[in-house]
Structures are given as structure tokens and as C-alpha cells.
């Protein structure tokens, strides 16, 4: 079974990793893809101050930092992981990578924003839910 866990370093994404770690005893063959999506660095201020190569190095560091706790938690549970740090639109990248990697499920944290706050902020979880053909589990 292949599971994709989008990780942003938040408590919500760490709870998603813990949920999957708890499945380790029940799943005979579990492979987890940890995904950190860095937003597109196309702001003119960023382009003015950093070369593309410099930004790429920074993003890899930010991504590695964001997945470190989840990777350690899963390793402790004996779960094999693979890390992906990519740049792009977060929701679309999650859905595309889940499909490209042949994942059976996406397990992701959700901050649980509803109402006007969720509408105005544009929930990534909500977008993934509408775009994905892969089954989803949201962890709050």
C-alpha cells in the first residue's frame, strides 16, 4: 500500500504521520511518500534578491526541515518513507504526485477552518478533496 502524506511542518501534518504510523502494525507492505510543496517563488522581490539556484537550495532546506519530524516518527514505527520536496501550486501538486506515484491513499492534516475563514483563505484540503481521484483521509 502506498500512502502520500503532504507535510508542511505543522502539528496537523504531524498528526497525519502519526495516524499512518499507527497503521504500520496492520499493513503488511506500507510505503509512505512524504511530500512538501514549496509555493512558486515568482514574486518580483524574490527574483530581484535571489538567483533561481539560490532559491532552490533554500526551498530544499525548508522542505527538509518540514518533513524531518514526520520522517523520524514514521521511521520509529518501522515505516519505509521517501521524501519529495517540490515547487508548485500546493493542492494541484499533491493530487498530481499521488497519481504519478500510484498512491492508494492520501492522508493529510486539515486545520479544520470552516465558514468565512475557510472560504477566504482557500483551504488546501478542500481543493485536494475536489481534485483528487485518490481516496483521502483528513486528520484534524
How would you describe this protein?
This protein has 140 residues and is of the alpha/beta class. The chain has 6 helices and 5 strands. It has helices at 11-23, 44-49, 52-76, 90-100, 115-121, 124-131; strands at 2-6, 31-38, 80-87, 105-109, 136-139. The radius of gyration is 15 Å and the shape is globular. The chain has a single domain (7-139), classed as HUPs (Rossmann fold). Strand 1 (2-6), helix 1 (11-23) and strand 2 form a beta-alpha-beta unit. Strands 3-2-1-4-5 form a 5-stranded parallel beta sheet, sandwiched between helices.
Features:
globular; alpha/beta; five-stranded parallel β-sheet; Rossmann fold; single chain; 6 helices; 140 residues
Q: Can you summarize this structure?
A:
This protein has 140 residues and is an alpha/beta fold. The chain has one domain: Rossmann fold (3-Layer(aba) Sandwich).
The biggest sheet, with number of strands, parallel, antiparallel or mixed sense and barrel status, is:
5 strands, parallel
Query: Helix share of residues?
Result: 40-55%
Computed CA radius of gyration, to the nearest angstrom: 15 Å
**What is the spatial order of strands in the main beta sheet?**
3-2-1-4-5
Instruction: Specify the number of helices.
Output: 6
Determine the structural class based on helices, strands and strand pairing. alpha/beta
Total number of distinct structural domains: 1
Name the overall outline: globular
**H/E topology pattern:** EHEHHEHEHHE
pLDDT average, as an integer? Answer: 85
Can you tell me the CATH superfamily?
HUPs
Per CATH, the class reads: Alpha Beta
State the total count of DSSP E strands.
5
**What proportion of the residues form beta strands (DSSP E)?**
15-25%
Amino acid at each position: 500500500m502506498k500512502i502520500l502524506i503532504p507535510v508542511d511542518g505543522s502539528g496537523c501534518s504531524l498528526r497525519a504521520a502519526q495516524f499512518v504510523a499507527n497503521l504500520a502494525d496492520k499493513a503488511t507492505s506500507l510505503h509512505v511518500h512524504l511530500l512538501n510543496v514549496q509555493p512558486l517563488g515568482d514574486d518580483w522581490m524574490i527574483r530581484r534578491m535571489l538567483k533561481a539556484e539560490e532559491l532552490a537550495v533554500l526551498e530544499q532546506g525548508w522542505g527538509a526541515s518540514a518533513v524531518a519530524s514526520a520522517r523520524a516518527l514514521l521511521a520509529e514505527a518501522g515505516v519505509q518513507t521517501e521524501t519529495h520536496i517540490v515547487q508548485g501550486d500546493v493542492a494541484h501538486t499533491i493530487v498530481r504526485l499521488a497519481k504519478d506515484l500510484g498512491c492508494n491513499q492520501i492522508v493529510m492534516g486539515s486545520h479544520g477552518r470552516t465558514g468565512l475563514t475557510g472560504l477566504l483563505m482557500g483551504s488546501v484540503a478542500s481543493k485536494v478533496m475536489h481534485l483528487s481521484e485518490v481516496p483521502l483521509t483528513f486528520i484534524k
